[in-house]
Amino acid sequence: MRIGDLKGKKVAVWGLGAEGRQITAYLQKHNLPREIMLLNDTPVSLPEWGKGCRLFLSEDIAAGLKEAEIVIRSPGVSIYREELVAARERGCAVTSVTDLCLNEFLARPNCRVIGVSGSKGKSTSVSVLAEILRKTGHKTALGGNIGTPMIELLDGDYEFVVEEFSSYQAADLTASPQIAMFTNLYYVHSDWHCGHENYCRDKIHLIAAQKDGDVYFANRRNEQLVAYTQAYPEHRRWYNEESGFHAENGVLYRGKEKIVGIEELKLSGYHNMDNLAGVFSVLEYLGIDIRQAAELLKDFEPLPHRLQKVAVKNGVCFINDSISTAPEAAIGAMKSFAGNLALISGGQDNDQDYRPYAEEVENNDRVKMAVTLFQTGPKIAAALRQHVTRKDFELQEVKTLEQAVRLAYDKLQALGGGTVLFSPTSPSFGFYKNFMERGEHFMKIVRAL
């Protein structure tokens, strides 16, 4: 569906967050729908930007859906919601801002969309891609959670639109980017997806509508990507295979040729080198000079809250990895640093399995301490008690982040130095507004030491 298809229709915008506001403003500016109705799950007053729209709240949403010809859902509105399923069955079209904008860009003959998805590593990957494309002379827009909202890019003229796609956005797309990349797939239980199987299928749906001549790159080392991309083999190309771009021990290779080592970069974390193998596979496919790209990569500034170096105090380095919302992210982070490690983990419970996290701690003798807190703290601590038997490992459970930082700092000072790794493994909600606020709190505590 394209934006022009909304003309003269009765449109319901479900969700009054940033996307709801943006699409409503765009539709009003261009005078497209016959009527715009606003739907929201929680009680709110009609916002100023929604003037002239009818507002349907909570139990009245079903009534609004019955009137609508087209529903534009926000990412937070699950495609599995009973009300949405019923609307589809009645013949109501359901779309999203992402789907509308993607179809608009795909209709432009001189514009290509590069979509990146995965459980972790999306933001850094799209940022590196966009920066290198720009610096090699290509007019490139960066869209998504860390870029400009896609709808604000519609009036621009771009050679490439590089976009980060969440599972919420990819789940019901009617079109696919001409070029896509998957970083990984990890276990994530979410009520939105009604289970892990749906989560994985919804992620991979990003490339379900690719056409002849389109391509996607997938990480050969990730077992779940191998499994779930089997449904779409015709456009698939692997990375992290020895014959192509692959990362080994912090070095990016193309075949046997060394391209760049992590010690030459401002980025931290060996897992970032795995993702760069995908990024460079895309760049080579686009005809970008790989040696030039490697030189440009050396100046790339890491994104905040993603293995971000905060400070070094008395031989102790503090790393802010607040973006970490899954155990697998923390496992990758543990493997990314030499020397003694003290972990700080915990957040909102998301029904995740912490056994692999605990097993990595058991097998990684650099990890000397773990401090757990917040809702998942007891669950992480229980897994560590069950699976970690090393005598040189210490576990502490605390109530505040201030206590956690102090304990980790004192432990490493006593050992002569090391790295305090704040990798929560869990979402921030319920304790912080988002992972950025959580990371800022950690950095504030560190700077006050």
What class, by secondary structure content?
Answer: alpha/beta
The beta-strand count equals 20
Give the number of domains.
3
CATH topology of the largest domain: UDP-N-acetylmuramoyl-L-alanine:D-glutamate ligase
- What is the mean predicted local confidence, pLDDT? 94
Measured distance between first and last alpha carbons: 54 Å
How would you sum up the major sheet?
6 strands, parallel
**What is the CA-based Rg, rounded?**
23 Å
What portion of residues belong to β-strands?
15-25%
Strand order of the largest sheet: 7-8-6-9-10-11
Count of alpha and pi helical runs:
15
**Percent range of helical residues:** 25-40%
Short recap of the structure:
By secondary structure, this protein is α/β, with parallel strands linked by helices. 33% of the residues lie in helices and 21% in strands.
Write up what this structure looks like.
It is a single chain. Helices cover 33% and strands 21% of the residues. The chain is an alpha/beta fold. It folds into 3 domains: 3-97, Rossmann fold; 108-297, Mur-like, catalytic domain (UDP-N-acetylmuramoyl-L-alanine:D-glutamate ligase), CATH 3.40.1190.10; 308-447, Protein-Tyrosine Phosphatase, Chain A (Alpha-Beta Complex). Strands 7-8-6-9-10-11 form a 6-stranded parallel β-sheet, sandwiched between helices. The chain has a 6-stranded mixed β-sheet with strand order 15-16-20-17-18-19, sandwiched between helices. Helix 5 crosses helix 9 (270-285) and helix 12 (355-363) crosses helix 13 (377-387). It is globular, with a radius of gyration of 23 Å. The mean pLDDT is 94.
